[in-house]
From TrEMBL:
Gene3D superfamilies to which the protein is assigned, alphabetical: ABC transporter involved in vitamin B12 uptake, BtuC (1.10.3470.10)
Family per similarity comment: Belongs to the binding-protein-dependent transport system permease family. FecCD subfamily.
Bilayer disposition of the protein: Multi-pass membrane protein
Transmembrane segments: 7-26, 58-78, 90-111, 117-137, 144-168, 188-212, 233-261, 273-293, 300-321
SUPFAM superfamilies: ABC transporter involved in vitamin B12 uptake, BtuC
Provenance organism: Marinobacter daepoensis
Name by which UniProt lists this protein: Iron ABC transporter permease
Organism domain of life: Bacteria
Subcellular location: Cell membrane
Length: 329
């Protein structure tokens, strides 16, 4: 039976995310009233309002909504697989590797593949290397995390080398990929992210019972009928796919994958992975962070990745200094 508390939390988060979407669409250099924003979404507003809301802001807000949800789900999966609160795509180097491959495509480093495909390839490569270096431990334990940190550092250095060896215009075009930004995101990349997120959610729904058993010991999970190896490979694959697609849209937006699952666990009843709550929280965090970045020092814009890093870094230190009071699931 569905848990009434979790359903209530998800409903509240859904309303909050929807409100933040409308608020972000209406707020900016050109202010649009909330009623006019809703009219623009239905296609009944004046041409100027339609242009501002639907052409200038809607794709950006949708990019933030979908990428935030994707990063949060990826973080929740990775933390559960590793049984470690620090095992998120950003901390174990998947974000940096995806960024390095995407930047290689943007600056034309002998490659002409689309950034989204390159980001997926980078995420998969980083995960495979970290998994291999972890040895028999797989995704479990600190060896996997330390290997990922090292891979992320190398990928970050490769990105800087590529940017330092190209023309200034090419470096400027690639710069948003290195800090995380939702500015001028293409509808095509947002659509691909939306399709990938939908496929990932369907796979999670189909395997939710098996994934939830990963909170127990291996012996208990096997006794409950879980095929551990297949379930872990599926969870890891979904995490890599969602991270790669999100990075291909917004770049390496830091700490969303850490903050959103933690916040969701605080709100939901323990016992299951709060994937829906984490996705809604990540989406809300991304939209509000982008709104703050756009409006705080307007017309100067602060990339969303910088906003999330400023807010999330103290929380990361708090996690490191304070033992976890709750289970990962």
């Amino acid at each position: 039976m569905p848990d009434s508390r979790n359903l209530l939390v998800n409903a509240i988060l859904s309303v909050l995310a929807l409100f933040l979407v409308v608020l972000s669409l209406s707020t900016g250099t050109v202010q649009v009233s909330l009623p006019d924003t809703l009219k623009a979404l239905s296609g009944n507003a004046d041409p100027m309002t339609l242009f501002v809301v639907n052409e200038l802001r809607l794709s950006r807000v949708m990019a933030g909504l979908l990428s935030g949800a994707a990063l949060a789900i990826a973080g929740c999966l990775m933390q559960t697989l590793a049984r470690n609160r620090l095992a998120t795509p950003g901390i174990i180097g998947i974000d940096n590797a995806a960024t390095a491959f995407a930047v290689a495509s943007v600056v034309g480093a002998g490659l002409s593949v689309a950034p989204s495909a390159m980001a997926l390839a980078g995420a998969a490569a980083a995960t495979a290397i970290a998994f291999g270096l972890a040895g028999a431990n797989g995704t479990r334990g600190y060896r996997f995390i330390v290997a990922g940190v090292g891979i992320g550092a190398i990928a970050g250095a490769v990105t800087q080398v590529m940017l330092s060896r190209v023309a200034i215009d090419a470096a400027n075009a690639a710069y948003p990929w290195t800090v995380g930004s939702l500015n001028a995101r293409s509808e095509h990349s947002v659509t691909i992210l939306g399709l990938g997120l939908a496929i990932g959610c369907l796979a999670l729904i189909a395997t939710s019972r098996a994934l939830n058993t990963l909170q127990f010991s291996d012996a208990v999970a096997i006794a409950l009928g879980t095929r551990l190896k297949a379930t872990r490979i599926l969870g890891l694959g979904l995490s890599v796919m969602l991270t790669g697609l999100a990075v291909s849209v917004c770049g390496p937006v830091g700490l969303i994958a850490l903050l959103a699952p933690e916040f969701a666990r605080m709100l939901c009843r323990p016992g299951k992975m709060p994937l829906m709550a984490a996705a809604l929280t990540g989406a809300a965090f991304m939209v509000i962070a982008d709104l703050i970045g756009r409006t705080l020092f307007a017309p100067l814009e602060i990339p969303v990745g910088i906003i999330t890093a400023i807010v999330g870094s103290p929380y990361l230190l708090w996690i490191l200094l304070r033992p976890s009071p709750r289970s990962l699931t």
